[in-house]
Input
Amino acid sequence: KRRVDAANLAARTKVEAAAAALKAATGPESLDRAAAELEAAAGEGEALAVKDKALVGLIAGAKKRVADTRQLVSKQRLALEVSEHAAKLTAAEATVNERLAAVTGKTEQGLYVAAEAAIGELKKLAQDGASIGERDPPHTKRLAAVNGQISGYRVTMQRRRIEASNAVVLEKLKGLEGKPAEAAFDAAESALKDLSRTIESSKNTAP
Output
């Protein structure tokens, strides 16, 4: 009986120590480790618990705490995933807006390539977050809002390109006033062709 009592006491002490460590733990990683240690301690004492009502209650309580802690850890990890992904979306949206601002009044192809790349990256980022949204309804709404803006960003980019190309056409047409040189006609014709291509390209803008 003394051996049993000693074993029970050792098991109880180990479970209580693990429970205290779990109570002191903070953050998902620490909580997860402490929960695993409490689960192990409870498992070791379970074979003895049938002979010790106090130990039975202690282990039952330990098991519940382990389950509750793992639910909490799962929620904390999801909240961290949501927070990190939301921050990435915000940064990507800022990049898109910066690059759209950069194309205003400009016709340089490189600026539009950069803007399209930013829009594509934002779209991919939203798609990559689908698995997070499945576990967090509010984030699903955020992703839907981002996806809903993609087409609008591209329309804005195309509109600004048309406006910039049209401004070049108007400038070149002014150059035909009076007695223009042959080069002025070539420049105006080139500007008109560029505007025509830009308008045609805008019809094929991907959503």
The mean pLDDT is 89. Residues 53-103 form the longest helix (51 residues).
